[in-house]
Write a structure and sequence with these properties.
Layout: E1 20-24, E2 34-37, E3 49-52, E4 58-62, H1 72-77, H2 85-93, H3 100-109, H4 116-123, H5 127-137, H6 151-158, H7 160-176, H8 189-208, H9 213-222, H10 227-246, H11 251-259, H12 263-273, H13 278-285, H14 297-312, E5 324-327, H15 329-333, H16 338-360
The protein binds fe (ii) ion (2 copies).
One fe (ii) ion (FE2) binds at residues 223-224, 263-264, 287-288.
Length: 361
């Protein structure tokens, strides 16, 4: 590994080059995470048990395991776990609609006939988004010598794809920038992680020739948004999750074991509630288990790999630390070697710094 990490730190671990690899670290295990293959023995977690809630009250039965995202029936039944899953589902359904500009730009991304006129019409609905686009396009990162005064000019200077990605970043930041203390994220941590994953996804898309770059970028931005909902439950049940991780589970497995549902599934439910395109729903749902995707396998593998790159840079780890499993089948699928990943990591550090500068300008 040769790439310097964001913020001048060096990554302290390198991507896997073969086999299925576990990167696990809990917050007190120090900066040198162990890399273990899944074939290595893991201490068995208790098969089932009674979960204890606040005040020592027994509140439910922890399921032995869930093979993947829980079904709607399970979510609706709401009796298997410490969480009232029906309440989670109801909470998702009661969320306010997605920002209007976000949904309109997503529609434009899905419409091959849409052009600059449609994009400008969608953005100018919101003066705040318009101002962000102009400010960002006028930053030194985009290199213009003349100040842009209109969205049309901006679109012609930097192109539709860049405008779309600026809008998506602005909208995602408004959703993700708060503190999620259950996950150990200070304000801005989840946003920075998400931005890094989006930038990594874009670099990967360019490297492997994936066509829908902006769709993948958006998947990277929003892949962890389910953490916004699960965070409140982690605040009260973190120790139970931590115990599972100490027993050998990944953080996502521990979420499923303790809550009956993990943040990826919750994020996908939010995306469905907001009527996001199916490809985006799948990228969010399967970002930890890309092989689960049937219709958008390439996109899910690339977001999974982009998430791994952000973890390898140490961006936005929070309490899950490196108790995350990455599937190196995603690397093999695109024929990427360790040198490719090193090069992408170096570029990712550069792009992250540039993007932060353009957003701060
Ligand atoms: Fe995640
Ligand atoms: Fe992530």
């Amino acid at each position: 590994m040769t790439a310097p990490a964001a913020g001048g730190r060096r990554p302290d671990h390198r991507p896997p080059d073969h086999g299925r690899t576990d990167h696990r670290r809990t917050e007190n295990r120090g900066p040198d995470p162990r890399i273990r293959s899944s074939e290595q023995k893991k201490r068995p977690a208790p098969a089932t048990g009674r979960a204890t809630g606040a005040g020592g009250r027994v509140v439910g039965t922890i399921p032995e395991s869930l093979p993947g995202p829980v079904s709607a029936a399970t979510l609706a039944a709401g009796s298997r776990t410490v969480l009232d899953q029906g309440a989670i589902l109801a909470r998702i359904k009661s969320l306010p609609p997605a920002p209007i500009v976000l949904t309109r730009v997503l529609s434009i991304m899905d419409d091959a006939t849409a052009g600059v006129r449609e994009l400008v019409s969608a953005i100018e609905l919101d003066p705040g988004v318009t101002a962000t686009v102009l400010k960002t396009c006028n930053s030194p990162v985009y290199g213009g010598t003349r100040q842009l005064a209109s969205l049309d000019e901006a679109a012609h200077r930097v192109g539709m794809r860049t405008i779309i990605q600026i809008v998506m970043m602005r909208e995602a930041q408004s959703i993700l920038e708060g503190e999620q203390s259950g996950y150990g994220f200070a304000a801005g941590d989840l946003w920075k992680h998400s931005m890094t994953v989006a930038l990594a996804a874009r670099l990967l898309a360019q490297r492997v020739g994936f066509a829908n770059v902006s769709g993948l970028f958006t998947g990277g931005l929003l892949h962890d948004m389910g953490k916004l909902v699960l965070d409140v439950h982690l605040k009260t049940s973190y120790q139970e999750v931590r115990d599972r991780v100490d027993d050998g589970s990944t953080f996502q497995e521990a979420e499923r074991e303790v809550f009956g549902v993990e943040h990826a599934e919750i994020g996908a439910r939010i995306a469905e509630h907001w009527a996001f395109p199916p490809s985006l729903v799948e990228m969010i749902r399967w970002h930890h288990q890309p092989d689960g995707s049937s219709d958008h396998l390439d996109a899910c593998c690339l977001v999974h790999l982009a998430d791994a790159l952000a973890h390898w840079l140490g961006v936005g780890l929070g309490r899950p630390g490196l108790a995350v499993r990455f599937e190196s089948s995603s690397v093999r699928r695109f024929g990427l070697g360790p040198e490719d990943l090193d090069r992408i990591l170096i570029e990712l550090v550069e792009k992250t710094q540039q993007t932060e500068q353009s957003l701060a300008a």
